[in-house]
Design a protein that fits this description.
The protein has 567 residues and is α/β, with parallel strands linked by helices. It has three domains: 106 residues, Urease, subunit C, domain 1 (Roll); 313 residues, Metal-dependent hydrolases (TIM Barrel), CATH 3.20.20; 108 residues, no CATH class. The strands form six sheets. Strands 1, 2, 3, 4, 5, 18, 23, 24 and 25 form a nine-stranded mixed sheet that branches. Helix 7 runs parallel beside helix 8.
Length: 567
């Protein structure tokens, strides 16, 4: 048997949830062909003795819809062991789209997912109208990961209803029939499924609500029926669940009308700290009753990152700061350190702030971010607590933290999953049989959040290969087989003969996250937050090594993955 790659003697967590064992992994082409003792030599061999070998991670919740049209690398996700990404989540995307609606979808993506309009204007080629055409364009491209796509509700509704969609008018019977037909067409062309948003937080950059907000249950059930007609696909939904029973009734209707799996975002928020439990209780009850409904959860607090080089910082709204905001970071830091400038900013702060800005200036809920441990800070570690201990004003403490050194200091504001400043809620979410790991949001929130680093965090924080107590083989299963199965990708997520050769070789002793930093590698010089990962010895996509010791090899074996109905 001619082998292209053998990974030898690693501690294999194969994705099934079985305990780790020492094994070789043999690869020919893009497939795993042998697991166990592999005596044959290969063109390339990796000595994995003392290292952890896993399937490539499958991230089912990303927003690389635009990046897939202009880039070959899917950083930051590909830097964290991810080998397959699923885009088109939360009801936002770029297909189908008529030429006259392009700017509206760009503005919506900017508002919902914090991707700058200038980046999308420079990067999107717009060489498609229909959703099948969009997939065909992606199929012509090469990447460092595999890419799968879902049909998003906002562009579908705008394409079908025009201005009436933007006004969030109720869909007529003919509108629903058209959307149902387009949903079936999308799945038959290779879409993994359909996504929608019912969140008040999802707004275009001009403040208008996402077109799918409060779409009627008849509309969503009708679209879901399109997946039933295709006999394939999954459904993804995010809702505020302000009225838990009413909203969950719509989720049930979608599941019943489609007969397909549905995943629902589950997060804890400070304004309703117990609502997540009400939602998860209903998900668990529905699952026990035979409906394929699961909660998408995140294994760490979700929070905003603020800094002088990020999208936001507590002082960004002051006139004294805005006068120097255009300067390059080194010059800006030097100017902000001048006593006169410092005094002017602090004297002006915070009277200028509207109510919406209070989140950025709540110093009792804001924390200096130094390392991965900073995701779970105690109250005394807040800016307010540290300022009190040193005898200065919280605003002054935050200002001096941001302007210290080279001006790359970061302030962190947990906004979800950490209301009581404990990990109990996250542990309960992860422990449920009715949840799957998601919400990494790779490709989105470029200047505010970097949850695409979640796979590395999960291994380092929760597994016994890092600081945690959960068996590493269970955490690996969450990141691989469970997520792959949740979106119908049955050819990956497990290390076994015949499966796709997507693999990670990891040094647990070096596993970790660097502090977040801004890198400017998007079109038009746009920036995104990156968190460098430690411990990845090699990442393999489709049998080719794409990263070695944290650096890209230049190999681009990744392709568009069409759903099973298309295959």
């Amino acid at each position: 048997m001619a082998l292209d790659l053998v990974i030898r003697g690693g501690r294999l967590a194969d994705g099934t949830g079985a305990p780790c064992r020492v094994a070789d992994v043999g690869v020919a082409g893009d497939r795993i062909v042998a697991v166990g003792r592999v005596p044959e030599q290969a063109t390339l061999e990796i000595d994995a003795a003392g290292l952890l070998v896993t399937p490539g991670f499958v991230d089912l919740h990303t927003h690389y819809d635009g990046q897939a049209t202009w880039a070959t690398s899917f950083g930051p996700s590909s830097e964290h062991g991810v080998t397959t990404v699923v885009t088109g989540n939360c009801g936002v995307g770029f297909a189908p789209c008529r030429p006259e609606d392009r700017r509206r979808l760009v503005q919506l993506m900017e508002g919902v997912e914090d991707i700058p309009e200038a980046v999308m204007a420079a990067g999107l080629p717009w060489d498609w109208v229909s959703f099948p055409e969009f997939l065909d364009r992606l199929a012509e491209r090469q990447f460092d990961v595999d890419v799968a796509v879902q049909l998003a509700h906002a562009p579908l509704r705008l394409y079908t209803m025009g201005e009436r969609a933007l006004a969030r008018e109720p869909a007529r019977e003919d509108d629903v029939a058209a959307m149902r037909s387009l949903a079936r067409q999308a799945v038959e062309a290779g879409a993994l499924g359909f996504s929608t948003s019912r969140s008040l937080n999802h707004k275009a950059v001009d403040g208008s609500l996402i077109p799918s907000y409060h779409a009627a249950g008849d509309e969503l059930a009708g679209i879901a029926a399109g997946l039933a007609e295709a006999d394939a696909g999954v459904l993804q939904l995010i809702s505020d669940f302000d009225d838990v029973d009413t909203e969950f009734a719509i989720v049930r209707r979608m599941a019943e009308a489609s007969g397909r799996p549905v995943s629902v975002t589950v997060l804890q928020f400070d304004h309703a700290p117990d609502r997540w439990r009400q939602v998860l209780d209903r998900i668990e009850s529905a699952a026990a009753g035979g409906l394929a409904i699961r909660g998408q959860v995140c294994g760490r607090p979700v929070g905003l990152m603020m800094g002088l080089d990020f999208s936001r910082n507590p002082f960004i709204g002051t006139t004294a700061y805005q006068e120097v905001a255009h300067l390059a970071l080194p010059e800006r830091v030097a100017e902000l350190r001048r006593p006169g400038r410092r005094r002017a900013v602090l004297d002006e702060f915070p009277g200028h702030l509207p109510a919406a800005g209070r989140l950025l200036t709540s110093f009792s809920a804001m924390f200096p971010f130094e390392s991965a441990a900073s995701y779970e800070p105690g109250p005394s570690a807040s800016v307010a607590g540290l300022a009190e201990a040193t005898g200065c004003e919280p605003a002054a403490y935050a200002y001096d933290h941001l302007t210290a050194g080279d001006g790359t200091g970061v302030l962190y504001v947990p906004v979800a999953n950490y209301s009581a400043r404990t990990t109990e809620v996250m542990e309960a979410m992860l422990a449920s049989d009715a949840t799957i790991l998601g919400l990494g949001d790779g490709g989105a929130h470029c200047g505010l959040i970097c949850d695409a680093s979640l796979p590395t965090y999960m291994l380092e924080r929760w597994s016994d290969a890092g600081r945690g107590t959960m068996p590493v083989h269970e955490v690996v299963k969450w990141l691989t087989a469970d997520t792959a199965a949740a979106v119908g990708l049955s050819d990956r997520g497990v290390v076994a003969p015949g499966r796709r050769a997507d693999l990670n070789v990891i040094d647990p002793g070096r596993l970790g996250l660097a502090p977040p930093e801004m890198v400017h590698d998007l079109p038009d010089g746009g920036g995104r937050i990156r968190q460098e990962a430690g411990g990845y010895v090699a990442t393999v996509v489709g049998g080719e090594v794409t990263r070695r010791h944290g650096e890209p090899t230049g190999a681009l074996p990744g392709r568009l993955v069409r759903g099973p109905r298309a295959a």
